[in-house]
Design the sequence.
């Protein structure tokens, strides 16, 4: 069953460059997966709330500050860093 | 200010992001605060490292509920968190934890006051509806240096309440008034500090225009990340003019996300609808749905302070304050409570107390603090009453001495200055300086007789008798002089009128 999606848009959102063959392959696989969920959605089931996933306020944490990693540990797990900050390629969501 | 042609109407909705007043982050125990060294306030949960589990901070939830109660919203039975997916290095996990379908606050409204014709006149009041408010995590901070960008995750995970209004605002002035009112409510309830210089309050501003009378809303644009009230005002003015210009030239408005350059005072396009992010929201599997107990809601309801404009109405209607003084006092809860403590000590003259608090006390406190306003450049800096050398009952004592005619209003200013310097009681200062007014009628009557017998004032007496009320003032100076300024001015006036028949 075909479910509406735009493989080019999905690839862009996922930051993937796909070849024509890959697009055809992934489109077909995605259609199968989405078709499976459509089958679940079509099943006639009573509406229930997943109570197992509802907690009350006892499950909250108190507002007590705990330990931190420290800038050295934080930057060590990144590929590049400078002056205690993580260094990344220039990303400017800004006026060009 | 903004010159919107009369056949056009502007429609504005705001999304206000407020950092909540907590010690730890919203899903992690890492502390947070402004001005720390980069990446020193980060723990594994903030980074979303494998094996970590976010747990919601109770204080952040309670502050959110408290906000809901302050604006008269309904607090839902449950709230839940979702993942908002996007790739950008300000976000260590590639998703932001937020609330999409089940926010913690639904509905509510904020009363606003528009500027009056002058400072002494109250402007129009209006209610702006809140659509909802959701509790999410703030993201890290990027700075751009040369060919790269640097990332500091100290801000990532700070509790952020996003307050979304209905499109109820109709002018730049209304947007400004709304933000002032919102900031006052948030700070007075202790929900947030709203220090805009520290980025504790940021705004996204949705603007569209339509022909007056049209039902259908025009295409809107969203200007993101405004960090001062003046930027919001300027954005509304700029965007309104731009959209009207486009439409009148026969061009269409594109639904787009925009930025604002405060230095150049102009907006610019960030991305259009084609490039709009698809955030692929889904319920966060790590954080269970939270049931909000009615007991908690009832407990928090007791913490809701008196609404700012309810207080203002009470001051004007019940205490008889002039609007100018009332509007100054109600902006700062601590100041209003200080004023009320003074009134409790001397209930006979609230206006006299208000006058000293709103003028003299505020002026001297501001001068001794020297702090500047942050997000709101136009508003006076909040003053610290904690270090105020005068206690409310002491100020009440000063006003009572004036009311009882023991000292003149002019002398009260002098005594006030001394009280502010030394923290002494008014009565002690009055005695030490020998300022007690002479209210001995017999002695004063004698002086009055001597003064009016002086031929030098005969002209003034004649003018007064001819009906020139003001001429009597010329006689008061010599009397004051002869009593070294200690005579009660009210009594002098009374005795003079009696003597002159």
Sequence:
């Amino acid at each position: 069953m075909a479910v509406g999606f735009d493989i080019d848009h999905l690839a862009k959102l996922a930051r993937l460059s796909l070849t024509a063959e890959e697009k055809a392959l992934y489109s077909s696989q995605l259609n199968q997966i989405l078709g499976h969920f459509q089958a679940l959605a079509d099943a006639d089931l009573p509406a229930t709330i997943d109570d197992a996933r509802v907690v009350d306020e006892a499950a909250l944490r108190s507002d007590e500050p705990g330990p931190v990693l420290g800038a050295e540990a934080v930057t060590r797990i990144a590929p590049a860093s400078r002056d205690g900050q993580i260094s990344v390629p220039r990303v400017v969501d800004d006026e060009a | 200010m903004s010159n919107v042609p009369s056949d056009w109407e502007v429609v504005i909705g705001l999304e206000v992001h407020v950092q909540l007043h907590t010690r730890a982050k919203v899903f992690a125990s890492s502390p947070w605060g402004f001005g720390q060294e980069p990446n020193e306030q980060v723990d594994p949960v903030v980074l979303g490292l494998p094996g970590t589990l976010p747990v919601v901070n109770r204080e952040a939830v309670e502050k959110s509920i408290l906000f809901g109660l302050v604006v008269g919203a309904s607090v839902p039975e449950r709230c839940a968190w979702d993942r908002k997916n996007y790739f950008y290095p300000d976000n260590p996990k590639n998703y932001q934890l937020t609330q999409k379908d089940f926010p913690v606050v639904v509905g509510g409204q904020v009363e606003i006051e528009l500027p009056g014709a002058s400072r002494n006149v109250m402007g129009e009041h209006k209610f702006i509806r809140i659509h909802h408010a959701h509790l999410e995590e703030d993201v890290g901070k990027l700075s751009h240096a040369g060919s790269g960008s640097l990332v500091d995750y100290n801000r990532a995970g700070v509790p952020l309440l996003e307050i979304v209004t209905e499109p109820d605002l109709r002018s730049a002035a209304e947007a400004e008034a709304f933000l002032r009112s919102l900031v006052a409510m948030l700070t007075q309830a202790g929900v947030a500090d709203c220090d805009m210089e520290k980025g504790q309050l940021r705004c996204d501003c949705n603007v569209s225009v339509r022909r007056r009378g049209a039902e259908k809303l025009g295409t809107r644009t969203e200007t993101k990340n405004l960090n001062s009230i003046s930027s919001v005002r300027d954005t509304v003015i700029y965007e309104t003019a731009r959209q009207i210009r486009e439409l009148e030239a026969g061009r269409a408005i594109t639904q787009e996300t925009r930025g604002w350059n405060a230095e150049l005072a102009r907006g610019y396009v960030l991305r259009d609808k084609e490039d709009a992010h698809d955030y692929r929201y889904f319920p966060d599997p790590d954080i269970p749905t939270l049931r909000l107990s009615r007991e908690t809601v009832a407990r928090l309801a007791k913490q809701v302070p008196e609404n700012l404009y309810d207080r203002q109405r009470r001051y004007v209607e019940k205490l008889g304050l002039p609007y100018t003084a009332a509007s100054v006092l109600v902006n700062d809860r601590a100041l209003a409570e200080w004023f009320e403590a003074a009134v409790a000590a001397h209930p006979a003259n609230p206006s006299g107390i208000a006058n000293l608090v709103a003028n003299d006390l505020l002026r001297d406190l501001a001068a001794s603090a020297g702090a500047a306003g942050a997000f709101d450049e136009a508003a006076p800096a909040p003053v610290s009453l904690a270090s105020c050398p005068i206690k409310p009952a002491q100020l009440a004592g000063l006003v009572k001495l004036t009311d009882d005619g023991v000292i003149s209003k002019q002398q009260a200013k002098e005594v006030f200055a001394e009280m502010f310097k030394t923290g002494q009681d008014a009565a002690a200062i009055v005695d030490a300086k020998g300022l007690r007014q002479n209210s001995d009628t017999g002695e004063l009557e004698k002086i009055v007789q001597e003064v009016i017998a002086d031929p030098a004032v005969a002209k003034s007496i004649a003018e007064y008798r001819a009906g020139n009320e003001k001429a009597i003032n010329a006689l008061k100076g010599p009397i004051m002089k002869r009593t070294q300024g200690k005579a009660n001015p009210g009594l002098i006036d009374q005795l003079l009128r009696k003597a002159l028949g």
User: Anything to note?
Assistant: The first helix of chain A runs from residue 7 to 13.
